[in-house]
Amino acid sequence: MDSFVPLWVLCISAILIFTVPNNFKHTISLALVAITIAFTSYWAGLALFYGFELQGLSPFSMISGDSPIVVDKLSAFFILVVNFTVLTGLLYAKGYLKSYLKTKNKHLMSIHYFSYVWLYFSMLLVTMVRGGLDFLIVWELMTISSFLLVIFDSEKEDILKTGINYLIQMHVGFLFLLVGFLFTGEFSGTISFDSMGVAFSSNELFEVFGSHGNFWLFLIFFIGFGIKAGFIPLHAWLPHAHPAAPSHVSGVMSGVMIKMGIYGILRVLTHLQSDWMEVGVFILIISILSGLYGVMMAIVQHDLKKLLAYHSIENIGIIGIGIGLGLIGIATENHPLAVLGFGGGILHILNHSLFKSLLFYGAGSVYKSTHTRELNSLGGLIKSMPKTAIFFLLGALAICGLPPFNGFVSEFLIYSGLFKSLSSANLNMSLMFLGGITSLALIGGLAIFCFTKAFGVVFLGSARCEFPIKPVEADGSMLFSKLLVAVVIVMIGVLPNLFLQPISEVVGMFVTSGGDVFAKTMHTTSQVGIISGIFILVIVVLYFMRKKQQSTVAVEYGPTWGCGYTGADPAVHQYTATSYADNYKQLTKPVVGSETEYKSFSEEEIFAPARSFVSHSHDKIEDNIINKGIAWILKTMERFAVLHTGKVQHYLIYPLVFILTLFLLTLLNII
Amino acid sequence: MISLLLIFIGALIFPGLISITKAKLSGKKGPGIFQPYKDILRLLKKGSVYSSTTSFVFQVAPIIYMASVLGAILMIPFGNFKQGLISFEGDFLMFAYMLAFGKFLMIISALDTGSGFEGMGANREALYSMLVEPAFFIVLSSVVMLSGYTSFYEMFTHFHVENYVSWLYVAISVYLLIQITLIENSRLPVDDPKTHLELTMVHEVMVLDNSGFDLGLIQITGALKFAMFGALIGNLVIPPMHLGFELSALAFVVIQALFAITVGFMESFRARLKMIYNPQFILTLSGIALIAFFAVFFITKTI
Questions:
Q1: Chain A neighbours among B 232-251 (CB < 8 Å)?
Q2: How far, in Å, CA of A42 to CA of B81, rounded?
Q3: Do A393 and B136 touch (CB under 8 A)?
Q4: Is B291 on the interface with A (CB under 8 A)?
Q5: Would you say the C-alpha torsion B120, B123, B126, B127 has a positive or negative sign?
Q6: Do A581 and A664 share a domain, yes or no?
């Protein structure tokens, strides 16, 4: 019997969600997801720890011929990452959707939970199926289910618009994948991942694409998968879709769904036969740009979730830097670079799925209790939501790559690879590595700038706005799922070797002879754990020293220092998100688009009336490349509208003309 | 351990030496060398006043700030003689990110007070430390390039200075490290610790609301940070001079003292830059760091 049967049964039983009343929909989804997690984690564990690859036949075999479905190490890694985030997302959803139970009808809730569960199944299948046609089917299922999740709040018009924008952009990506797979089929005979190796080395490939055929065919796949992953300049859907979706969905989408794009890229890379250098340099440059542009745009956002969405682009960039370096390492036979690059990139996939989902859950809790995501109307939430604040702070520290949290470990691996290769490389390579180092450092600095702003403005200081209902701490289930994520974040930070072992197995798929590099690295990372321990110890000692000192002296509480005048409303004088980013905006004007609407005082105005100040930011890449491109297409298409006369007679002539042309062309032996 | 001790000694004399130098240059008698520590000691005994707007972030920030600098110091070696208490490949990354952790907490603790002044200071500190990051990493990269190793101890041990170009490289690096130290410690020309107007401050305005024990910790941390960067400079300069162990230890302290006096000199004859020129100034350092990086290519004869 096929060992994947339980999975098909579970997939079909998702229908049950439609049959139960509203209150049980969450429970039944959770049960389905939990059972699936048990099965798939077991399969993944087999592959990752025992090297046993479970194989079976795809359920679509009747349409696409006998196509296999395999859980290998790469799939296993992604399955585990998906499992964890989907679980925490669903736990979080219980609290988050509670208030929607009253406003949304039964069917909408059913569709939501059904899409969530199916998004999960489709992501699992994306990592497992090997046939090209099967892959495209499950890839499309993933897009549709996530689209349905994004438009959950579809009463709001702009959310529906965003959703459709998302759907269209995903299909542009789909088109590229289709073309890529068709080429694979053309060159190798079968449309599947497994035959990609044949396609990449076939003579026809080089006849069609020239000597760098591998690069060009990879590029087609890269565009297809890159739209999902959100590389610059293919990112335009991301900053719109994430804020529109409910927070548990944003967490899952940003945490794991965009990683499916990375999965696709990695899967294609395993079959690459030559041109590692070209592909590596290409990915490295695109990733550096994505990393920098993502975080630079994030700083000027005032929408908390949009800010986080831009950080996803940044982190995809960091993952890409790792992968690009890994490829350069393979091309130059520099094993440490290859292992550390791939290792860092792959670990960062896990890390980003953790801290980004944590941050989105935090943003969701803030939205739920204040009903706004606008940074400039929030403030001082740490007093009413202390636990949410702590988790958000933890996520912020982790995403900035600070020790002793998980983000540091993966960035450390990438940095190590770069630094180790600096002295042995030639001039061009050294400069490229230096570029990598500098941009990682800059990305880190910018991330700190961004998250001190985000955390400071949302949670610290005093409230900038009175809310009709006082903000309250998030629901227990929401906090519990955050706790789960937080525990793993700290665990990776303090005990990185626990996680590096399985990662080294995955890296082994790309670099065959790098075992000793990993052993050495694990020795190093254990030191990171030690120093984190000392760090925490010093903090505890100092804390108790101060406690002892303060028990003997007077400790008073008073107003914040106000330069001698404390009568004014403290909320008015605080720094806002806009003022915090002001000097940065002036500095980055050429890259980051922003406008302010403000009329300054004229000399005649003695008693000046109240002024208003509005600032916007816009994405220059989206405006200049995506939107202009679309405008151009629309304009071109309008020319054909001449044919659209509205008269039946004309329309009858068109087929006649068509048939005549065909006839003439065949007559003249042109076709 | 020896480097830890030497850094503590350096931190002990650093603030005093700066203020003595500044006083002498402006024709004043000047305080004793331990006067800053007498002030800090008094602070450590005082009671505290907390703003009622603040939360636990404000309370833990000074402690974490100090712990982060202490943690970073553990990784600094003593020339080519003794490695830091903890040494591993890539320890300088941990060093840089550890410091960033402390800074992150200080920035959000300033925002925690909900004061416009402190928000301003926090914003400037975040901006400047972000801008200075590339320069520091390029300098580190050039040292890694030159030595071929990736831990502080090995980097400084295998750092060979053979000809005049190399000394030129050392000179540029030392210059850069001094400037980076000044920016990281919020001194002239980016920030003037003696200014009395909140609007022109960077670091001082961030800690306006800290008092008593916390303020004491922050000031000790400032001195430690100075000595820590001084030790980095010492590590760059001392091993190529091939001195013995004892002489090196002495040279270490002398370099710290010289560094302090240099800072005093620079601060006496220089005015603070206009705020809007600060980013330019800091970014220029990255440019100079690139020159140092290219110098390494000449030294290793890759070009």
A1: none
A2: 52
A3: no
A4: no
A5: negative
A6: no
CB contact under 8 A, A448 and B126: yes
Same domain for A294 and A436, yes or no, is yes
List the domain range (segments joined by +) for residue A646: 619-671
Using the beta-carbon criterion (under 8 Å), do B60 and A460 form an inter-chain contact?
Answer: no
Q: Cβ(A109)–Cβ(A46) under 8 Å?
A: no
Task: Please give the Cα distance from A46 to A70 (Å, whole number).
Answer: 12
A440 and A496 together in one domain: yes
User: How far is the alpha carbon of A153 from chain B, nearest alpha carbon, in Å?
Assistant: 34
What tens digit of pLDDT does each residue of B263-275 get? 898 888 888 888 8
Same domain, A387 and A291: yes
Which pLDDT does position A173 carry in this prediction? 92
A438 touches chain B (CB under 8 A): yes
Please check whether residues A648 and A543 belong to one and the same domain: no
Are residue A590 and residue A625 in the same domain, yes or no? no
d(CA A392, CA A91): 17
ipTM: 0.94
pLDDT tens by residue, B6-65 = 888 888 888 899 999 999 998 988 888 888 889 999 988 888 899 888 889 999 999 999
Give the pLDDT of residue A396: 94
Q: How far is CA B222 from the centre of its chain?
A: 8
Residue numbers of the domain that contains B87: 2-27+36-299
- Is position A44 within any domain? no
Give the pLDDT score at B225.
Answer: 92
Q: Identify all chain A residues contacting B296, using CB atoms and an 8 Å cutoff.
A: none
Does the residue A338 lie in any domain? yes
pLDDT in tens, B100-145: 999 999 999 999 988 888 888 899 989 998 999 899 999 989 888 8
Interface contact B293, partner A, CB < 8 A: yes
Chain A residues within 8 A of B145 when measuring between CB atoms: 422-423, 430
How does pLDDT run across A223-280, given as a tens digit for each residue? 999 999 989 888 888 888 888 899 999 999 999 999 999 999 999 999 888 888 999 9
One-letter identity of residue A156: K
Chain segment A535-579, per-residue pLDDT in tens: 889 999 999 999 888 888 888 888 888 777 777 777 778 888 888
Q: Burial of A520 by CB count in 10 Å (0-12 exposed, 13-18 middle, 19+ buried)?
A: middle
- Residues A651 and A590 occupy one common structural domain: no
**Contact status of B123 with chain A (Cβ, < 8 Å):** yes
- Nearest by CB to residue B213, choosing from A382, A523, A550, is A550
Q: Does residue A367 form part of some domain?
A: yes
A95 contacts chain B (CB < 8 A): no
Inter-chain Cβ pairs, chain A and chain B, closer than 8 A = 253
Domain count, chain A: 2
- What is the rounded distance in angstroms from the CA atom of residue A312 to the CA atom of residue A297? 11
- Give residue for tokens 């995501």: A373
Pairing verdict, β A68-71 and A54-57 = antiparallel
Q: What is the mean pLDDT of residues A609-628?
A: 83
- Residue A64: the pLDDT is 64
Q: Is the pLDDT of residue B84 over 80?
A: no
How far apart, in whole angstroms, are the C-alpha atoms of residue A122 and residue A207? 36
Report yes or no on A116 lying in a domain.
Answer: no
Which residues of chain A lie closer than 8 angstroms to B66, CB-CB?
538, 542
pLDDT of residue A514: 64
> With bands split at pLDDT 50, 70 and 90, how would you rate the model's confidence at A515?
low
Tokens of B264: 């005093």
Q: Which residues of A touch B197 (CB under 8 A)?
A: none
Residue with structure tokens 């080395």?
A201
Contact call for residues A130 and A70 (beta carbons, < 8 A) = yes
Judge if A350 and A458 occupy the same domain.
Answer: yes
What type of residue sits at position A318?
Answer: I
B113: contact with A, CB 8 A cutoff = yes
Per-residue pLDDT, A1: 46
Mean pLDDT of B190-194: 81
Q: How many domains does chain B fold into?
A: 1
CB of A460 less than 8 A from some CB of B:
yes
